[in-house]
Design a protein that fits this description.
Strand order of the largest sheet: 1-2
Order of helices and strands: HEHE
Number of strands: 2
Strand content: 5-15%
Helix content: 25-40%
Amino acid sequence: KIHPDTGLPISTSGLDWTSVFGEEMLKLGQEREDIVAITAAMLQPVGLGKFEEAFPDRIYDVGIAEQH
């Protein structure tokens, strides 16, 4: 969020959605061996860094694959 008068970011307390998603994926990966993650060249920005560290054989980065 951005402050409308100053244009500066408004700091928030609590977790952001990316962190929540990443932690939940890590938890699910620990509980179930059939969980994999697929990302399109956005591993860190979508919160999958910890999942990759814990399960490097269960993450697939397909890169940017759309046609132009």
